[in-house]
């Protein structure tokens, strides 16, 4: 179907719609001209994620936060890849633009603006720039700002698309021109049921012409709607672009589901209309203002530009994957991928991502802990189902709060330390914010229930001590063991924090909490080295386990004992282990003043996992799944709690001894805590 609409065209000398005219800031922008071996990074706003692509005018997929359906392979819940509204087909003189007929391709990721700009030339006929945004201010929508500069007279054809995944059910494709008074609002519309029918998903898209020069206002391009297939809905237009002139336009899309909206189609339409009828500068300025507020919490490294970029990219992704107004958590791969791990929430959030966010952005940190408190009822039910008291949180969590681990994985029934990890994060949130109302209403009920679980979970020994039997610890290479060091240490810490939380609120703590907490065994080898579990025989381990007792738990605090454990377990780490493992070793060496070993392990914790061309982190060096937010959390903790000397205490955030790497001239930590303090570490 073809429609004539009064849309304003901008024909003007080149006015960049990208950051290309601005002087690049080497501390904020990552630039590449290499499309080989390409691993994308996420443009995300805490609700949707768009994974970048090396293909011109394309994104790989859209991830919908907290919207789950069933994975057809594992038959457990999986976060949805939504309808892809982020691809544009562009034809010049009838020839489609592809990676085969472009030159001078480059991409620049501007982390400060959360904007990815791509530029390329097309056979000497045109130069194209486009910038992709996952709008922080309109969190269910994306914005694709495009400029086409004609090097000679060209015929231009542009196709905006919504691609529905083929596993979706009952897809419906349509196009509607809404009218109010004299305003016309064309919207491409797609809706379908998610693969197993759990949610209605609706997406919309439209073109926006940036009207700057009014000399061509009388031009009225024809919009053509075409349903290519039940899974591909398109809207296109054509025009002649004279040599030396430039056309600026945008394609904007929005996506809503019945998870968040009673009428997702209408809400997606409204968001498209909002973007259509707002000035580009207003939309982008508000997006950038939201990111400027996030970047009040920042890390500045002087002396090594590459480390500055790497650290900022890690912090960027944690900000991009979270929202302070969502009460949602962050999965290990954030909003970059559906797999691995199905978009489920693990201990990765509380132990690895949460501490840096707690320092920099208490709003996002509050969402992470509220995600758990909102699902306390299901954790209580799960404990009861397994014969325990209190709350037993699932190893893998989704929107329901029930266990989402595939049944074949032993971690689901036995990796119980997560219940302690959650309680520890809750007390740390109170330590930093001193929000007693939150503690009373949301925090303490979770901490108390976790403590009750551990009292019911332990086994009394004849000597008056307690064991925790048959668990999977942080080292998942050793399943179904007794007295795992980290599990026992986390339980000890959670029980101690429950006592402190009760007293903070003027309540009398259950005496069993202290009795059990002080009686849980931490096993030792003959030379005093902490023993990872009762049957440990020196085997290779997947990741740090024992050493977590020194940081972050502070159960093992004697310097000689910390060093002994470090020297024993560092050589035991498997090269196939996840990126964050060596971060713990780096932090501990930094706190002991051994900056050389700390910096060595800091690099080993992430550099092998950095994938070209942007340095996106994968979980292990041999994969290219991006972006591993857990690894980002470990990397940032090394900088903050190791080199920067920061500590979480009952007095709030304090600073102990620092350890500046010799390769850096200074380290500045900005926006720390509710008071937004700045810490400067210099030579």
UniProtKB/TrEMBL annotation:
Reply yes or no: does the keyword Signal apply: yes
- Give the residue range of the signal peptide: 1-22
Which InterPro entries does the record match to this protein? 6-hairpin_glycosidase_sf, 6hp_glycosidase-like_sf, GH65_N, Glyco_hydro_65_M, Glyco_hydro_65_N
Q: Which UniProt keywords apply?
A: Signal
Q: Which residues form the Glycoside hydrolase family 65 N-terminal domain?
A: 41-131
Which domain of life does the protein's organism represent?
Bacteria
Q: Which residues form a coiled coil?
A: none
Q: Which PANTHER family match?
A: GLYCOSYL HYDROLASE-RELATED, PROTEIN-GLUCOSYLGALACTOSYLHYDROXYLYSINE GLUCOSIDASE
Please identify the protein, giving its name as recorded.
Glycoside hydrolase family 65 protein
Q: Which organism is it from?
A: Neolewinella maritima
